[in-house]
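Help needed: design a sequence for this.
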């Protein structure tokens, strides 16, 4: 009987030593990562949370969001699914008689949000069908547009390479 008792006590002591020595589960443990400071009490050391960097928005996304905040859903502009371009069409129904001032207001606002010089807007709204497709790069944005009386002004903005 005495041997069984000593064997049980030894087993409990061994398990306790393993618990304290390898796992660190002493009576002061709070469940965190604890470190024994020589000659002092156990202190709780918690790893700092690593902040994930927020995804950085492109110039196009920032400009699109600013225009959207003013004009909301509109048939005149869209951003590509891959966010690589913005397209504005001042006559999305392709009708000779179609005109809404909101369409050119959106062009002006988009240009402003992209930091494009005002001369680009003036050149856009005075482009004729005979001039063909126009291209200009400014402030890291390449703008390409064309005009036709039946189709209106069609503009594409992309980030310059």
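Sure. Designed sequence:
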């Amino acid at each position: 009987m005495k041997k069984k008792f000593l064997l049980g006590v030894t087993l409990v002591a061994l398990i306790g030593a393993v618990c304290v020595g390898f796992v660190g589960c002493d009576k002061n443990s709070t469940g965190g990562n604890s470190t024994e400071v020589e000659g002092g009490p156990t202190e709780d050391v918690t790893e700092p949370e690593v902040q994930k960097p927020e995804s950085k928005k492109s110039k196009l996304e920032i400009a699109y969001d600013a225009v959207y905040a003013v004009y909301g859903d509109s048939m005149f502009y869209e951003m590509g699914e891959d966010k690589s371009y913005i397209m504005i069409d001042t006559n999305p129904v392709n009708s000779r008689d179609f005109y809404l001032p909101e369409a050119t207001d959106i062009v002006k606002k988009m240009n402003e949000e992209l930091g494009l010089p005002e001369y680009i807007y003036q050149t856009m709204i005075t482009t004729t069908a005979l001039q063909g497709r126009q291209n200009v790069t400014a402030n890291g944005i390449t703008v390409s547009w064309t005009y036709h009386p039946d189709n209106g002004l069609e503009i594409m903005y992309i980030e310059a390479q």
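The chain has a mean pLDDT of 80.
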